[in-house]
Amino acid sequence: MYDMNRVENAVSQTDIKIAARGVQVYYGDKHALKDVDVDILDKTVTAFIGPSGCGKSTFLRCINRMNDTIPIARVEGKIALDGEDIYDRRVDPVQLRAKIGMVFQKPNPFPKSIYDNVAYGPRIHGLSRNRAELDEIVEKALRGAALWNEVKDRLQEPGTGLSGGQQQRLCIARAVATAPEVLLMDEPCSALDPIATGQVEELIDQLREQFSVVIVTHSMQQAARVSQKTAFFHLGNLVEYGETDDIFTKPQDSRTEAYISGRIG
Ligand SMILES: Nc1ncnc2c1ncn2[C@@H]1O[C@H](COP(=O)(O)OP(=O)(O)OP(=O)(O)O)[C@@H](O)[C@H]1O
C-alpha cells in the first residue's frame, strides 16, 4: 500500500504542485482508477509507469480535467493545484489547461502555420497586446522547445510539414507558449525515432527548471533517464511512488519488483 508519510517526510509542503487525494475514475461501470493519493512536486519530472491499461493515462487526464471531455468518465476525489481544487465549479477547464498543458502520444499540430500553432494559445488567452509581443512569445516558446533554429526561416509554412520529431517539439512549444505551471506528457516519444527521442528527453530535462513535468512512459529506461520521481500503477492502483532511483533499485512492493524485472507487463 502506498504510504503517505514517505512523501510528506521527504519534501516540504511548498514543493508540492499537485496534490491528489482519494481519486477514483469510473468509465461507466468500470472502476479504472482506485483511490489514488499522490503529491507531485514542482520543478521535478515525475514518471508514471506500469502495464498497459493500468490507469496511467486516466490519471494524467484527471490532472488537467481532460476526462471532462469523455462523457462516460466520472472522477471522484480531490486534486489541488497550489492548494486550489481544480474541480471546483468556478474553475474554467480551458483556463486550467493553459496552466496545465498537455502533449500527446502522436504529434498533433493544427493544420496551420508553424507560427500560428504556437500563437494559438497566447491569442485565445490574450497574452499579448500587439504583434511584436506575440512574435516574442512565439520565438521564446520555440527556443524553449529547442526548435527555433530549425524553423525560424519558415514560420509561415505548415506545422504538418515538419518531421515527426519536429512536430512533437512544435506541440511542446505550443504547450509552453501559454506559460504553463505543469506540463503533462502522454508517451511523448512513442512515435519518434531514437534521435528525436533523445532531443525530446533533453528538452524535458531543461523544462523541469521552469515547471513540473509529468510523463507517462512505457519505457523504463526513459523513466530512469528523465525522471526524479516515479509512480508505479497496477490494475488501477498507485502501488508505489518514490525517488526514481529507489523504485528501480530497491522497490518496496513485490508488484513493482515484478514489473521492473519484466515479470509482469
Ligand atoms: N475512454 C474510455 N472509455 C472506456 N474505458 C476506458 C477509456 N479510457 C480508458 N479506459 C479503460 O480504463 C483502463 C485504464 O486505461 P488507461 O488508458 O488509463 O491505461 P494506461 O495505463 O494509460 O494504458 P496504456 O499504457 O495502454 O496507454 C483500461 O481498462 C481502459 O480500457
From TrEMBL:
What function does this protein fulfil?
Answer: Part of the ABC transporter complex PstSACB involved in phosphate import. Responsible for energy coupling to the transport system.
Q: Where's the ABC transporter domain?
A: 18-260
From the record, give the transmembrane residue ranges: none
- Species of the source: Paracoccus caeni
| Entry's Gene Ontology BP terms | phosphate ion transmembrane transport
Tell me the compartments it is located in: Cell inner membrane
- One GO location term (cellular component): plasma membrane
What is the name attached to this protein's record?
Phosphate ABC transporter ATP-binding protein
Main localization, broad class: membrane
Question: Which keywords appear in this protein's UniProt record, sorted alphabetically?
Answer: ATP-binding, Cell membrane, Membrane, Nucleotide-binding, Phosphate transport, Translocase, Transport
One Pfam family per UniProt:
ABC_tran
For membrane topology, the record states: Peripheral membrane protein
Q: Give GO terms: molecular function aspect only.
A: ATP binding; ATP hydrolysis activity; phosphate transmembrane transporter activity
Matches recorded under InterPro entries: AAA+_ATPase (IPR003593), ABC_transporter-like_ATP-bd (IPR003439), ABC_transporter-like_CS (IPR017871), P-loop_NTPase (IPR027417), PstB-like (IPR005670)
